[in-house]
C-alpha cells in the first residue's frame, strides 16, 4: 500500500488544533442550523422538521433537519437515476479526485467543524471524535481510492490471438445507503464507497446523527461531487422511505450498518420484492455484536484491566466493537475485579466540552431507557450482581455511569444480549473448566463480531485462537476489541453480526461493481470445422 493512515491529533492544551476545535464548538452552539434534504444537488425543505439535541444537555438544540417522506424518496431515486449515466461513465481517476480532495479538506480546514459536529451531535469526547470523524473517514476516502485501483488493475490473462479484459461497471440502478448514528466515518463511507465505484446513491442517515451528515454532504459538494450522485434524505420515521426504496425496480443494492433486528426486516422486505427488481440486489449489512474478552490465567492484569475499561466504556459502550462480556478465570479473579472496580470509580463523566472527561452522555432518551432497563433487570435478577456503577440520570443529559455486572453463568440475559451502552458483564470460570467456558463463549450469543483474548503462554494463544475461529470476524490478541484501523484491520463479522464484507479493505468495494468480461479476437475463425472432424479412413473401419 502507498496510502498511509491519517495521524491522530492530540489536542494538548495550547495546541493549534485545540484552539480551532474550541472555536467550532462555540460557533455550533451559538447558532441554530437549518438542515435541508439534498436531492439532485438542490437543498430541499419539507413540511416537517426534527430537532437535533445535544446528548449531554438535551435542552440545547443545535438545529433542525427537514424530514423526508415517500415523495422525497421518489424524488431522490429519480435524481440518482438522472445522474447515473454521466457519473458511471466518468473515469475512476476523476471520481477518485473528488474523494481525495474531500479527504484533504477534512484533514485540513474542515477537520474542526466535522469533529465539533460529531462531539456535540453524537456525544463524543475529543479523542473519540478525532479517531472517527477525522482520521477514520479520511482513511476510508484515501484507502478506498487505492483499493478501487487494485480492483480495476485485476485483469484476466489472454492467449495468443485475443485480448481479454474485465470492465468494472457500476450496478444497474441505485444503491441505498442506510447508516447508524454511532460513527460519522461509517456514514460517510457507506455512501461514498458505492459512488467511487460508479454508482449513484440514496442515503438515509440516522436521525440521531444528521448534523455531521449535513456537513459531510457540504464537504463532498465542496470537493466537486456532481448533483444527484448522493441524495441525502433523513427522517425520524424511516419506514415510508425504505418502503419506497426497497420496492423500486431500480433498487440495485443496500449498504447498511445498524442493528441486527432492522437488517433482518430489510432483508425480508427485499426478498418479498425480489420479482420487482431488474436484477438481484447486492445486500451488504454490518450489524450488532456481543463482543467478548476471554482472559487466561497467564494474562497480564494491568493490560487486561486497561482493555476492559477502554474496550467497554469509551464512547459509552456505543460501538459495535465494544467489549460487553468478559470471561475471567478464578485464579486471577480477585486481582482483576479489585483493580477494575477501583479504576472504574475514577472515570470522569460529563459534557463533551470539558476535555478532561473520559465518558459523556449516551445518544438519546431511547438508548438511555434501554440501557437503564438492563441495569434495573440486573438489580432485580438473582443471576446478576452489580459491582461498579449501576446508576443513571437523565435530568440534564443522558448520563449512565460505567457499570460492571457479575453474571452467574455465561448464558444469562446480560451475557448474551447486545446492550449498546456502558455495561460490562463478567463471568468467573474455574481454571480447569476452560473448555466448557470456551464453548459457551462461542455459542451463547447469536453474534460473531469481535473478540479478544488475553494470555502470555503462546500455546494457550494458539489454542484459544483455534477454538474461537468462528466466534469473531475481528480477533485481537492482548489488545482491546475496539479501534479497528482502515487498511490495518478490515472490519466485520459473521453470524447475526452481518455479511462480513470487511469495511476498510478492497473486499467491501468489490460488492459495488458489476464486472463485464470482454474477449476480443484479432483474427476470427472463418470455417466452423475442427481439425478432429477431418476425414480418416481408419475411423471408418472401427
Ligand atoms: P438502527 O438499526 O436503529 O438504525 C440504523 C439505520 O436504520 C438508521 O438510519 C435508522 O433510521 C434506520 N432504521 C431503523 N429502523 C428501520 C426500519 N424499520 N426500516 C428502515 N430503516 C430503519 O441502529 P443504530 O442504533 O443507529 O446503531 C446501532 C446498531 O448498529 C448496533 O446494533 C450496532 O452494533 C450496529 N453497528 C454495527 C456496526 C458493524 O460494523 N457491525 C457498526 C456500527 C454500528
Would you mind describing this structure in some detail?
The protein is 40% helix and 21% strand. The strands form seven sheets. A seven-stranded mixed sheet has the order 14-17-18-13-12-20-21, sandwiched between helices. The radius of gyration is 26 Å and the shape is globular. The model has no long low-confidence stretch (mean pLDDT 97). With 542 residues, it is α/β, with parallel strands linked by helices. It has helices at 16-29, 70-89, 92-107, 111-122, 126-153, 184-196, 210-222, 239-246, 260-272, 301-313, 330-344, 365-380, 413-416, 434-443, 458-467, 506-510, 537-541; strands at residues 33-35, 37-39, 42-44, 49-54, 57-66, 162-169, 174-178, 200-204, 230-232, 251-257, 282-286, 291-295, 323-329, 384-388, 392-393, 399-400, 403-407, 423-429, 447-448, 450-454, 474-477, 494-495, 514-521. Helix 4 crosses helix 5 and helix 4 (111-122) runs antiparallel to helix 7. The chain has 17 helices and 23 strands. It has two domains: 16-287 and 498-518, Aldehyde Dehydrogenase, Chain A, domain 1; 291-494, Aldehyde Dehydrogenase, Chain A, domain 2 (3-Layer(aba) Sandwich). The site of nicotinamide-adenine-dinucleotide has 30 residues, from helix 8 and helix 9. Nicotinamide-adenine-dinucleotide is lined by residues 178-183, 186, 204, 206-207, 238-239, 242, 257-259, 262, 265, 286-289, 320, 418, 420, 449, 491-492, 497-498.
